[in-house]
Write a structure and sequence with these properties.
Elements lengths: L1 H62 L4 H14 L3 H12 L4 E6 L8 E3 L6 E5 L2 E4 L18 E8 L5 E8 L7 E7 L4 E2 L4 E3 L2 E7 L5 E7 L4 E5 L5 E5 L14 E3 L5 E4 L4 E5 L6 E6 L7 E4 L5 E6 L2 E7 L2 E8 L7 E5 L4 E5 L4 E6 L5 E6 L8 E4 L4 E5 L5 E6 L7 E4 L4 E5 L5 E6 L7 H5 L2 E6 L4 E5 L7 E2 L5 E7 L2 E8 L4 E3 L11 E3 L6 E8 L2 E8 L12 E4 L1 E6 L5 E6 L2 E6 L5 E5 L4 E6 L4 E6 L4 E5 L5 E5 L8 E4 L5 E5 L4 E6 L5 E7 L8 E3 L5 E7 L2 E7 L2 H12 L5 H7 L18
Antiparallel strand pairs: 1-28, 2-3, 3-4, 5-6, 6-7, 7-8, 7-9, 10-11, 11-12, 12-13, 14-15, 15-16, 16-17, 18-19, 19-20, 20-21, 22-23, 23-24, 24-25, 26-27, 27-28, 29-56, 30-31, 31-32, 32-33, 34-35, 35-36, 36-37, 38-39, 39-40, 40-41, 42-43, 43-44, 44-45, 46-47, 47-48, 48-49, 50-51, 51-52, 52-53, ...
């Protein structure tokens, strides 16, 4: 019995062990299932978050054409939620879709106020009810009010005397029961009134000072009569009768002063008169189309004026009065007008937040820039004619645009030169100057070159004696000079400020030379008819060896070299060929006659482009395609890469530069247009901090900042505000807690 009991106990123990083991296994399965559930939940949460961020990117892109400020703020928040190529692209598009918009400043007011930039292009003023305050164009801050004020009268017009010493205000009654204005002139030396405000029982349409600043001319509504007041005393000196007004165009209109003192007067109904500046007697008359002459602005030639209105624009010569050109377009209103003689342009601001640039000589539209801040108010030149400032007419906002090619993340340097190369750290440019438009290699070698500091736009090295200079990977500058022995690689000695020809002796001048930063070897292409001889040259200083034995390629179109020089890639009329860089053995081919352009990055990514502009990334070893990119309209001219291969810049035959994220193929922003008058040359810094392109005999080089944190700061300047809580809830929701996207602006309380 004892044995039976022992056996039973052992069996019971075995059952207990088995049950325990089963329990452990069940617990492990439960843990695994819980872990799987947790992983699935986390994956679902991550997927939902990614979807929310992608939705935010989509909303930013869809709003950009109509609500630029909101779109900019959503792009910032998407980037902060997750730094991806897609969020970077949305943020970068804030600037690539509107390259000239500089910033937007909003001020506290129940309604928009008139503002003005003074003739010096730096000082500005803005109304504040009956007061006038200095306005800082850079910060948007308003200063202490001037002593002068027009109690009971607000809004209206601000006009400056030509010398900037006086500021006229034509203000409207705060509570209008009948037509009335007050005219005042402020002495800006002490902020006091020149005379007690003069009240006139009419509405004002426009105003301007005489050329010597002694008179103030004001056009009155509804009949467009002109009143001349003494700018020092307010005395009415003369008055010119108005025009016959009809029900369709019941407005007076514009007034412009010519350099010789004569006055041009116009009405919205199309009447134009030339008046004597002293007597206001009529000298000449002209009828133009209705709705194109509500505003008048003088042209710098002193021989013509430009008019604008709800139906278009017109340019009128004054000796005698005649139409130079007229553009009647009922879809292109121009209530706000600015003439910029230095740019041979006029700018029209309309009621929908659009700014249109037109050719001053022909009236032909050049481009339209959207700001989406409601109806455009008065527009003025600032910053020595390189900046346009608009005071909003329907919102309390001041918007600035750059007219010289720069912008929130763009600077312009080296006026009169074109870019040759950019330093690895993005701090310096090599620029060339020539009077020729020939871009052949021989002509490039005849340029006069210098190195320019991008931050200061100052020349830091004179490279007149170093033809065709390039930056080496370490930031040194090298080129090729003619010596008694022949063409030799030479270097710029920064410490001694001299050219030292101690590099390799070259076997002739190549037709094309690829000396990419980040590579050990460069590649010279010596073209002879339809074939080319390709030769490596070491890019290490001091280089003691010249070009190596050549590789002859028939049907040659393009060539490139790997980072260590172990591969030479040739584009030909029959496709792409890859050779061993040392033995010249053919290692592989892409047999497609349409694939002719080849580029190899410092990370040995092989990019191939077709005649139609398609761009494909291939594995350099296997020649298997990796992914395709957006490419270009027409054959791609050049491709540039950062040192880590993460970003490429593609210059297309359509004179655009497009950035791509190499790892995903995502296009970053919109293509950047190289101005028609500029040389189509591009440079991308090895560290990916800056992109430079263009420049020419009468233009400057554009330098674009590529640091996303710079984009964030600039996007805040473009937006000029923060999201409201309602906007946050509608667009961002639970993705993040409400905050001030741009700390420099107040958040919604």
């Amino acid at each position: 019995r004892a044995q039976d009991a022992s056996a039973d106990a052992q069996a019971e123990a075995a059952r207990a062990d088995s049950e325990a083991s089963s329990a452990i296994e069940a617990a492990q399965r439960a843990d695994d299932e819980a872990a799987d559930a947790q992983e699935s939940a986390e994956a679902a949460t991550t997927a939902a978050r990614h979807a929310a961020i992608e939705g935010l990117v989509g909303r930013s892109e869809s709003l950009r054409s109509a609500q630029r400020d909101t779109a900019a703020l959503l792009a910032i928040e998407a980037f902060r939620a997750d730094d991806t190529p897609r969020t970077r692209s949305a943020l970068f598009s804030t600037f690539t879709n509107n390259q000239r918009l500089l910033d937007t400043h909003r001020y506290q007011s129940e309604y928009p106020e008139p503002g003005i930039v003074m003739p010096d292009g730096e000082t500005a003023y803005i109304a504040d009810g009956p007061k006038i305050r200095p306005y800082d164009l850079e910060t948007g801050e308003r200063g202490a009010p001037l002593e002068a004020e027009t109690e009971g009268f607000v809004g209206g017009l601000l006009r400056a005397s030509p010398d900037g010493g006086m500021l006229a205000r034509i203000a409207f009654p705060a509570e209008a029961s009948s037509p009335a204005i007050v005219v005042s002139v402020v002495d800006l030396t002490d902020g006091s009134l020149q005379f007690e405000p003069v009240q006139l029982d009419a509405w004002a349409e426009s105003a301007t000072f005489s050329a010597d600043g002694s008179r103030l001319f004001v056009t009155l509504s509804p009949d467009g009569r002109l009143v001349a007041l003494d700018a020092r005393t307010g005395t009415i000196l003369a008055e010119a009768p108005g025009f016959m007004i009809d029900d369709v165009y019941p407005f007076g209109g514009g007034v412009a002063v010519l350099p010789d003192g004569r006055i041009a007067l116009s009405s919205s109904a199309g009447d134009v008169r030339l008046l004597d500046g002293l007597t206001l007697d009529v000298i000449d008359e002209l009828q133009v189309s209705r709705g194109v002459a509500f505003s008048l602005r003088p042209v710098g030639d002193g021989l013509s004026v430009v008019g604008s209105g709800e139906n278009g624009t017109v340019r009128i010569a004054v000796d005698p009065l005649r139409v130079v050109w007229e553009d009647v377009d009922f879809a292109s209103t121009c209530p706000s007008l600015l003439v910029v003689d230095s740019a041979n342009a006029l700018y029209c601001g309309d009621g929908f937040g659009r700014l249109t640039e037109r050719d001053l000589a022909t009236g032909t539209p050049r481009r339209t820039i959207d700001a989406q801040n409601g109806s455009a108010g008065p527009m003025w030149l600032a910053a020595t004619g390189t900046e346009l400032v608009a005071f909003g007419a329907s919102e309390p906002v001041v918007t600035r645009w750059r007219l010289d090619g720069s912008g929130p993340i763009t600077s312009v340097v080296a006026m009169g030169s074109n870019v040759r190369d950019i330093s690895p750290d993005g701090d310096r440019l090599l620029v060339g100057t020539t009077a020729s438009t020939n871009l052949s290699y021989e002509q490039v070698m005849d340029y006069v070159y210098r190195a320019v500091d991008i931050a200061t736009d100052e020349t830091v090295a004179d490279l007149t004696d170093l033809p065709g200079p390039l930056f080496a990977t370490d930031g040194s500058i090298y080129g090729a000079v003619m010596t008694p022995e022949g063409i030799r690689v030479a270097f710029y000695d920064e410490a001694a400020d001299e050219i030292v020809a101690d590099g390799a002796l070259l076997d002739g001048r190549p037709t094309y030379f690829a000396g990419d930063q980040g590579k050990q070897f460069g590649l010279g292409s010596f073209v002879d008819g339809t074939s080319a001889t390709l030769r490596r040259v070491e890019l290490v200083r001091p280089s003691t060896e010249g070009f190596e034995e050549g590789l002859v390629v028939d049907g040659w179109t393009r060539s490139a070299i790997s980072s260590t020089g172990d591969r030479i890639v040739a584009g030909t009329v029959d496709g792409v060929r890859v050779y061993d860089g040392t033995t010249h053995e053919l290692l592989g081919e892409i047999p497609d006659p349409l694939q002719r352009g080849v580029y190899v990055t410092p990370t040995d990514d092989l990019f191939v482009t077709s005649l139609g502009g398609e761009l494909t990334l291939y594995d350099l070893e296997t020649l298997e395609p990796v992914r395709t990119f957006g490419g270009s309209r027409g054959f791609i001219q050049e491709l540039y890469s950062t040192g880590d291969g993460s970003i490429i810049a593609v210059r297309g035959g359509d004179r655009t530069v497009t950035l791509y994220d190499t790892g995903t193929g995502v296009q970053l922003g919109s293509p950047l247009a190289i101005p028609e008058a500029d040389f189509p040359i591009v440079a991308l810094s090895l560290d990916g901090s800056r992109l430079a392109f263009g420049g020419g005999r009468e233009s400057a080089i554009q330098v674009w900042e590529l640091d996303p944190e710079v984009w964030v700061d600039a996007a805040c300047r473009v937006a000029g505000r923060n999201l409201t809580r309602d906007e946050w809830d509608d667009n961002i929701g639970d993705l993040a807690t409400y905050r001030a996207t741009c700390p420099q602006f107040p958040a919604d309380s």
